[in-house]
Amino acid sequence: MSGVRTDTLAHLRGSIERIETHADTYAPDRVSLGHAEADMALQGGLARGALHEVFCEGRQSAAATGFIAGLAQRISARRPLLWIRQDFSERETGALAISGWQELGLDPRSLVTVRAPDVETALRTTADALACDALGCVVLESFGESKPFDLVASRKLTLAARGSGVTALLLRVAATPTASTAETRWIVRSAHSPPGSPWQAWGAPMLDAQLVRNRHGPNGHWIMEWKCDECLFREAPHSQPVAAAAAYRSPATPALAQRRAG
Asked: What is the domain count for the chain?
């Protein structure tokens, strides 16, 4: 048994060495996000068959979920999307809403969700799922800090993704980035929507997306709009910050109100 383990470990080390040795010549298929500046930084778009990470604060989980759903939609190319969620993540952030999925312009029929009792199970399930080349994308979502998300686990997911060509997206909520083999790493927050038409109850989905790791290009920071009808990201229509709505402003004092009236 020890000989089998030694051979497996040697094979894994050899695969990792080949990945790291040929990192500069690695030329994956890329898919455009639709956002011109982000696509330029990404050398044409997000790499398929690779590992990508998205981090966010706990209160920004909805924004990060929407962002990673958009990435998955662009990458999957009408193939099934497998979303693996740690049980604790669902208790903290809530279940994925099919109605919300549809409002983003996404097809819920392509989404398959799996719940894992712990991080270790979620990682094993993700590695197994990445071996299935019938999938378009695999998302792994977890909440909070977790030791199993180490460099070894990251390398295993990278190997699995490159072997099958299936893209792995990690959604880390309320976690601190650590060393990994991810192709890109994003930090995502919500952004103010610009004023819309009177008949629109909600503004357009706007995201503050910061690319903090890019293995083959520069980093960047953009305000992105998700176009629900076209299912792609675009530059924000307003470059200037949007003023807060009156409901969120502090009330004016009587003296200030009189000066404004005069």
From this structure: 1
CATH of the domain at 213: 3.40.50.300
Distance between CA atoms of 17 and 65, rounded to whole angstroms?
A: 33
What is the domain extent for residue 104? 34-244
Spacing of C-alpha 174 from chain mean position: 14
Distance CA 123, CA 226 (A): 29
The pLDDT tens digits of the residues spanning 62-82 come to 999 999 999 999 999 789 999
Residue 129 resides in a domain: yes
The 10 Å Cβ neighbour count of residue 44 is: 14
Angle at CA 36, nearest 5°, toward 32 and 42?
A: 55
Q: Is residue 50 part of a domain?
A: yes
Nearest to 35 by CA among 74, 76, 81, 78: 74
State pLDDT tens for residues 5-55: 555 555 555 555 555 544 445 577 999 999 999 999 999 999 999 999 999
With pLDDT > 70 as the criterion, what percentage of the chain qualifies? 77
Q: Is 188 domain-assigned? A: yes
